[in-house]
Every structure is written in C-alpha cells, then in structure tokens.
C-alpha cells in the first residue's frame, strides 16, 4: 500500500498536467518527487526553499491572479510557522488555497518537537470558513484532495499522516460515515481519520454507534444528532490536540443534556523521541488504552 503522501504526489502531478490553472508551491519538502512535474511546468511548480512564510505568501499571490494554488510541507511548517501569512495572505485577502500537510502530529518523533504539530487544526479553527479534511487512507486522501482542488476558491486544509487505517471507506466530503450502529441510541464514538481502526478494535462488543469523520470542518452536525438519543454520551477520538472538536459537539447538541469525552494528543509535551506506536501509547490513543478509557466512561 502506498502512503497518503505518495498518493498526493501522484494525484497532484496528474492534475498539473490536466489543468493549467493549478499551481504547486513547495518549501523543499517533496521537491525531488515533483521534479518531473517541475520540468514540464516550470512556471507552475515553484520551490521557494525553506521559507515557509514565503510559501504561503506566494500561494496567496497566485490565488490573486486567478490560479488555484496547492501549498505543501510538513504540518508544523505549513500552519504553525507561517500562521500570520495564512491569516493575512489568504483569509484577509479573500482568496483561497489548498494546504496539504505531511507529518501529522507525531509521524517523525526522531526529528523532535519542530516536526510535531498536534495543534494545527485547533489553530485553523481561529480563522473563518476553512474546510478541513483528515483522511485515514490513501484512497480517501485522493478523493478528498481532488474535491479540495475543485472546491471553487475556498481555503481547504488536507491533513496527511503515515498513520492510516487498513481499509478505505467511501467517504463523502463534509459527511460522517456510520460504521457501526448501537442497539440502543445514546452512546456515540466519533473516530477521526487514522484513528478509526483503533476505535473499532477498542469498541468491539460495546453497544455504541461509531461515526467516522474524514472531514471535520464543516462538522457534520446532522449525522451526530441523528445518531444520539435524548441524553447522549459522546466520545471524540482525534489524532491531534485533545478537545479540538469538542466545541462543535457541544454546539450540535446544545438543545439537550449531553456528556463529551474528548480524547487526543494532550497539551502536556512528552519530551521523548521514540516511535509513532510509543507516542500513541503515551497519549492513551493505542487500542488497549482506548478500550479502557472509552469503556470506563460509557459504562
């Protein structure tokens, strides 16, 4: 199976051949993989080097000319480092771009804290009108990337990770997918992107509906409301900062009493390198930890 990042490179290379309006802006990351595309389209594949603020500024400038830019690098360098340019060059200017990240929250722990970005989606939540896709499989990444590229002139964030589920779902952009239905309405577990496999294993045998979210903004309020009972218990499992979407759950259920358990990467920093699996265990996001935390909360 290829990775989400490899699929992004393949799909974007083909889109560059097909659409003269598309432009790609890089900051060294993945530049070698896009070299054949740059040779064919030197005016539309631009590598600005390790200048992430310029990466976003250039994308905003291209959008102002009517192009549909895709900007790509690691999540910490795409959202966190150039956040002022995201706010000004895109949102304030009223133009749109597709930001495609790699690295997730902890894909490369050996690179240290500079390459970890659990707060990226929460940071984008401070800006209006962003679409945020968090695919859990390369096939989903392709579908959501193609939708993002064709989504008018909206600002779209596509969050890619090495962590992925074994099987792709036929996701519909902007909609949750019901993966498992409880016998009694009430308990709902929302698994975001690459957390689905661990959530399904953790909730095996538990009477809970499992909703799958490959798009988290806009938040699918209708799907959540249809899945819960009169006094719902909701567990939110996200692969980034814990509680990032808790406000969306509260807003969706504001007219009824409810409880929410938000699971994700804690705010406290784990000052260790290790592997992705070790980070998942440290954050309580591995299957065994999720089983205990969800089971204790719901029953």
Task: Characterise the protein shown here.
The protein has 299 residues and is of the alpha/beta class. The chain is built from twelve helices and twelve strands. It has helices spanning 4-18, 35-40, 52-64, 75-80, 83-92, 120-124, 138-149, 196-202, 221-227, 246-252, 276-282, 287-298; strands at residues 22-26, 45-47, 68-74, 98-102, 130-133, 155-159, 177-180, 187-192, 209-213, 215-217, 233-241, 259-265. The strands form two sheets. It has a seven-stranded mixed beta sheet, sandwiched between helices. Strands 7-9-8-11-12 form a five-stranded mixed beta sheet, sandwiched between helices. It is globular. 48% of the residues are buried. The model has no long low-confidence stretch (mean pLDDT 95).
Key terms:
299 residues, alpha/beta, seven-stranded mixed beta sheet, five-stranded mixed beta sheet, 12 helices, 36% helix, globular
Short description:
The chain has 299 residues and is an alpha/beta fold. The protein is built from twelve helices and twelve strands. 36% of the residues lie in helices and 21% in strands.
Class by SSE composition: alpha/beta
The H/E string reads: HEHEHEHHEHEHEEEHEEHEHEHH
Shape: globular
Helix content: 25-40%
- Strand elements, count: 12
Please work out how many helical segments DSSP would assign.
12
First-last Cα distance? 37 Å
Q: Give the strand content.
A: 15-25%
């Amino acid at each position: 199976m290829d990775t989400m990042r490899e699929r992004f490179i393949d799909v974007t290379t083909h889109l560059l051949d097909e659409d003269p309006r598309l432009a790609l802006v890089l900051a060294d990351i993945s530049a070698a993989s896009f070299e054949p595309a740059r040779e064919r389209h030197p005016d539309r594949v631009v590598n600005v080097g390790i200048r992430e603020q310029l990466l976003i500024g250039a994308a905003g400038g291209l959008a102002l000319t009517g192009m549909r830019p895709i900007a790509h690098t690691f999540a910490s360098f795409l959202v966190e480092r150039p956040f002022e340019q995201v706010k000004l060059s895109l949102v304030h200017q009223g133009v749109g771009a597709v930001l495609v990240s790699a690295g997730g929250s902890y894909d490369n722990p050996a690179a240290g804290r500079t390459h970890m970005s659990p707060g990226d989606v929460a940071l984008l939540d401070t800006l209006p009108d962003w679409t945020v896709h968090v695919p859990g499989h390369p096939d989903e990444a392709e579908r959501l990337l193609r939708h993002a590229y064709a989504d008018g002139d909206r600002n779209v964030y596509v969050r890619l990770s090495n962590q992925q589920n074994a099987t792709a779902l036929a996701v519909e952009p902007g909609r949750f997918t019901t993966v498992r239905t409880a016998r009694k309405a009430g308990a709902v577990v929302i698994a975001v992107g690459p957390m689905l496999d661990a959530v399904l294993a953790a909730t095996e045998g538990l009477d809970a509906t499992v909703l799958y979210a490959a798009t988290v903004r806009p938040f699918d309020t209708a799907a959540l409301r249809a899945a819960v009972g009169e006094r719902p218990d909701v567990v939110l499992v996200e692969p980034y900062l814990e509680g990032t979407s808790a406000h969306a759950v509260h807003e969706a259920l504001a007219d009824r009493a409810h409880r929410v358990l938000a699971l994700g990467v804690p705010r406290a920093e784990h000052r260790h390198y290790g592997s992705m699996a070790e980070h998942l265990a440290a954050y309580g996001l591995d299957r065994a930890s999720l089983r205990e935390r969800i089971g204790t909360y719901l029953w």
